[in-house]
Design brief:
The protein is of the alpha/beta class. The chain has 9 helices and 16 strands. It folds into 2 domains: about 1-185 and about 305-390, Zn peptidases (Aminopeptidase, 3-Layer(aba) Sandwich); about 185-295, Alpha-Beta Plaits. It is about 35% helix and about 25% strand. A hairpin with a 3-residue loop joins strand 1 and strand 2 (about 60-65).
């Protein structure tokens, strides 16, 4: 059976791809700067005999044709950029670049996709359709590499009937996968506000228009956008995360700068909330005598897992892993530019367990000590190959 062949090859090739993960981890590159990573992926695809093309400067798109390649096309996606974090792990494959680290597991995602590619290409006479491999840059930074890849036609010629993506889950034990139908991850928009007042001596506030006082009221006032306008059952987060103004004790500054994030899982509410945030901010600042510069930088959309596709994928995971090793993933207010794909075609974004408490591998993503139990590599590459070769899309 094909499933057993995939499992056998995943086990056989696991050491090779763990070494590939070590190389990627030791040589991280920031968003939109993944030049060496891209060349490495291209070289591997050449070795495997898989044709590819370049999109969005560093993105790589491979194509594997099975029997009857026109029957359907399934896309498999892996992202490849790192984060501006100084690694604190003491491991042989520690990042060689100061202040840059694969702290979100994109080295794992790329490795699993490469592993799946090798397996699928070796077994291409045993499955029907076409698999499109999407190695994507810039997931960690607006406007998101997915949006750039889409603009350059990654979802055309051939157009995928569905797309799958995996993400490491540091809270899920190695050996397990998790899935969720419908709303999975939030949209992410950045808020930038400058409150302008009139500076002066702190001992004469009556001669000033105090932007610190105004901004303080504004931070509190903005919370009513969520608490009094949003349906309580609709997950939403509005956080002001930066307050910059003033430099000393006896001077009221002329302006204050605020930064923050707005997260939502409902696209209609998301843009209604933008208008409410703008309205509350503008009217409150004006009412207190100040002026305002206001910007919402619209970021990634929410990730929505197509229900029918998720059920198919969940069933395939049970076949591959056993029901005891397939769980339901929790909703997360984090964001992922995979949402751009799910707006256009059916998508399934699932989680790969990488935690091992006994080995003290428990650190979360985006931390300087994030790492994985590398037994997850065999599972990740095998499962991607199984999904790419076995899910029938009607």
């Amino acid at each position: 059976m094909r499933i057993e062949k995939i499992k056998t090859l995943a086990k056989q090739y696991a050491p090779e791809f763990i070494a590939i993960r070590h190389h990627l981890h030791a040589n991280p590159e920031l968003s939109y700067e993944e030049y060496e990573t891209s060349r490495f992926i291209q070289q591997k695809l050449k070795e495997f005999g898989i044709p590819f093309e370049i999109k969005a400067t560093t993105g790589v798109v491979g194509l594997i044709k099975g029997r009857n390649p026109g029957k359907q096309t399934i896309a498999l996606r892996g992202d490849m950029d790192a984060l501006p974090i100084q690694e604190e792990n003491e491991i042989p494959y520690k990042s060689k670049k100061d202040g840059v680290m694969h702290a979100c597991g994109h080295d794992v995602h790329t490795t699993c996709l490469l592993g799946a590619a090798k397996i699928l290409n070796e077994l291409k006479d045993e499955w029907e359709g076409t698999v499109k491999l999407i190695f994507q840059p810039g997931e960690e930074k607006n406007p998101g590499g997915a949006s750039l890849m889409i603009k350059e036609g990654v979802l055309e010629n051939p157009k995928p009937a569905a797309i799958f993506g995996l993400h490491v889950h540091p809270g899920l034990q190695v050996g397990k996968l998790s899935f969720r139908e419908g709303k999975v991850m939030a949209s992410a928009d950045e808020i930038y506000i400058t409150v302008k007042g009139k500076g002066g001596h702190a001992a004469a506030p009556h001669l000033c228009i105090d932007p610190i006082l105004i901004a303080s009221h504004l931070i509190i006032g903005l919370q009513q956008v969520v608490s009094r306008n949003n349906n309580p059952y609709n997950p939403t987060v509005l956080s002001i995360t930066s307050f910059q103004g003033g430099t000393t004790t006896n001077v009221i500054p002329g302006e204050v700068k605020l930064k923050g994030t707005f997260r939502a899982m409902d696209e209609a509410w998301r843009f209604k909330a933008h208008e409410l945030i703008r309205k509350v901010a503008t009217e409150l600042v004006f009412s207190m005598g100040g002026e305002i510069d206001f910007l919402i930088d619209v970021g990634y959309p929410s990730v929505y897992n197509n229900e029918a596709l998720n059920k198919l994928a969940n069933g395939k995971a049970v076949e591959f892993m056993g029901a005891q090793n397939v769980e339901e993933t929790e909703k997360r207010m984090g964001a992922e530019d995979f949402g751009y794909y799910t707006q256009l075609i059916p998508g399934c974004f699932y989680r790969l367990g990488v935690m091992n408490v006994s080995k003290k591998i428990t650190a979360g993503v985006h931390t300087p000590t994030f790492n994985i139990d590398e037994n997850a590599i065999e599972i990740g590459m095998g499962m991607m190959a199984w999904l790419g070769s076995s899910v029938p899309i009607e």
